User: What shape does this take?
Amino acid sequence: MCGIAGVWLRQPGRELALTVQKMTATLTHRGPDGGGIWVDETVGVGLGHRRLAILDLSPQGAQPLVSPTGLVLVFNGEIYNFRALRRELGQQGYVFQGHSDTEVLLTGIAAWGFVPCLQKCRGMFALALWHPQERCLYLGRDRLGEKPLYYGWTEAGFVFASELKALRLSPAWSGQINPEALHLLLRYGYIPGSHSIYQNIDKLPPGTWLKITHPGENPQPQSYWSLTEVIRQAPPWQLSAGDTVQLLENVLTETIQEQMVADVPLGAFLSGGVDSSLIVALMQKQSSQPVKTFTIGFSEATYNEAPWAKQVAQHLGTAHTELITTPELAMAVIPKLPQIYDEPFADNSQIPTFLVAELTRQCVTVSLSGDGGDELFGGYRQYRYGQTLWRAIAWLPLRIRQPLANLLRIIPADLLNRLFTTPYYSAADNVARLAAVLEESRPALLYRHLCSRWLSVPLTADLVASLGEAPQTIFEQLAGCSPGLTDAISIFMCADCLMELPDDILVKVDRATMAVGLESRAPYLDQKVVELAWQLPMSYKIHGDKSKWILREILARYVPAHLTERPKQGFALPLGEWLRTPPLRDWAETLINSQKLQQQGFLDAPTITRTWQEHLQGKSNWQAYLWPVFMFQAWYETQNRTDANGSSPNGC
Assistant: This one.
């Protein structure tokens, strides 16, 4: 696991090496074990790399790596099937100097070509390749978007990096805020799709590649793998339930075996839920030593899953470590979030995710996780809730539903909240959400409202009016075309795999783990597992009142059901309560000072102030709506401070 950065300047200059060196240095946390750069001043190309040594700890595993034909590679990630690819290349006569997957990847590109090699690789990766014979720069990203890659253009030329902080040191950087991205952040709590918080800077989408033949060129990413095509081409499933359970266990076991390959200490995150417990169980089955497992808990019993994780660990015989967090520990993390996430990001489980990563890194360098289990096997409660809601309204014609929505909207919010509210529930919010749902003609658009935040808060239109229309996302795309998806839950799961997973869950985990120099691996996101999961009938995923049925069937072979059969909690924390008391209350109020908001001109101060007061008074729990505001404000202030070199603040 590493960090990469680079430029292709329109006007080559003597400062090229220094520029790439500075950009790469900002990614030292991603690669604390070493770094290197490669530049060609005659064409203005420079590539940089920071190394977290996982495989082949010798200098032969260092990057940038140059092939005998002059190809230059910088690579972030892991190729899990590199041993099989190495054998195939060896049979073709290729000789290797070390045993890293990076060397196998570069040799494969030289032998098969850039895109064919990506299609052969199973793993998580983001990479850049300079091809001197073709005089072009290639970028590529893994199928599910586990590893980040930003790219774009400044007046000086083309730039790319694992994180935005490196781009901010590129030549002619301006850093104009992208209002469309801010709109999306407020709505979803993260910035989805190809957007970034900066204008003219994009994220390379998962499963795509890009070829740049000139630093002023602006080509579109091309797909080498597509989840929607996997779904479209899925054949009818023929195996019995019992045979399917065994097949999935075999595939997961093989995948985990590949992902346990490392030349450094390895462990696993363990929440005590189905997903992580199954990963740990299959790891322990293949390990002669107790697997090292790590859990974060909370002093508030309502949010604390640590006791369940401890029982699972004891049953499996792992070497288990847990940390119980407090508001004080959380507060110590919050000032670091703008630097860690490097872009406004408002999934509040980012706090415990960072804490468990920090805990884990004290003992190991690689940790396996259960990420992806919910999206692939139907684990989220909103899937069944959304399906029930869709079935309840779909039979009504829109001409009837629209007047009903209008009637709901005229009910005074204060009246609804006085009659029905609790400290953690807003009747007015859910009525507004229901009104929006009633007007939708497709399940994907209904699900968009279930996943939204500020959209359904009363008077929210004032908050985002100055930002213009939000750009389309996967919800609108699936509403227009849902290939191979015949039921509402499948549409919801596909939307999450294409948006929430790469742009929320995986961003959260990548930045938190990389901030402490820890590599996180997700076996459920292996290509073989993903493609198998999307072939399975829905009844093997959601069976009666059981979500993730097939995973539970496998897990029951290793862990008694009573240790994992409980309502899903998620990686939540009592943020709403903490925000009402110091020190978090003081921190929040500093960020949303009315005068400050008015001067910045992005957000509507009266709307935010009113919502904040309702939260403080206990009328509603607005933490999910306010947290994106706090995260944007904290990020914005951090980025606009004068840096250590005395450079000017970013433009807006």
About this structure: Confidence is low (pLDDT under 50) at residues 456-461, 642-652.
